[in-house]
Design goal:
Number of strands: 8
Shape: globular
Distance between the termini: 31 Å
Largest sheet: 8 strands, mixed
Helix content: 25-40%
Strand order of the largest sheet: 1-2-4-3-5-6-7-8
Amino acid sequence: MPPDEPFEPQHRHAQVNGIRMHYVEAGEGEPVVLLHGFPEFWYSWRKQLPVLAQDHRVVAPDLRGYNETEARPPYDSGTLQQDVLGLIEALGEDSAHIVGHDWGGAIAWQLAMGHPEAVRSLAILNIPHPALFIQGLKSFAQLRKSWYMFFFQLPWLPEQFVARNRYRQLARAIFQAIPASEERRQDVATYRRSWQEHGLGGGINWYRALMRNPRRLPDPVPIVTAPTTMIWGEQDIALGKELTVGTERYVRDLDLHYLPGVGHFVQQEAPERVNELLLAHLERARGASDG
């Protein structure tokens, strides 16, 4: 694609695990699936898609209950994993490189542990390994940071809370670390349009399902065997950096990178650095596969 040509991914839909899933796709080559977190949708990867698509087939779905993908229960971890596995199958593939941020990263961790045959490599952005997150919730410091998880257990009130002032406060929380510009204004408008049209009840229901039907990790915890890169913005106000300590106990091949001065929405706050690390990760995974 010439550098002066605007990047336009293809918008597609597929019937996946009982729902109609929307996703965007670009490029050719080995498949890379990008899984977003709360309260986002495929658009959170807009800075990664054109870069990764130069050498890969990149797919960024709206996960169950977000944006244009159907908001249909259940929202438990097993169902969410099957959604991603179903998408990979709908793409005509049996495995993919998985990249996940926040909730998308939580599903990616689960896939790598429970369905290693489907995960060619794993890249995780600002979400700890589930075992370390469970351990971290035993500390008052992390419990205080995770207050919203408990607030989201209430009926209807969380949906009203995040929608106040037509989602302006929520958008501000995502973009507060990004300098004001016309591009930022357009990005905020894109998020708010999606939220106003589709709501965020589906995403909030992920939290409700997590707390009401907790899924125990196997004992012993399976070791992640896929080549794994972890990228962590150190200024994350929701998840403490200390939650990354000990990740190597659960991952055979781990490459961990801390980004100082960067917050939770790392791929949007530091897109150039994240892109560099993801490209290096995919190259490392290719080398491991060839070896």
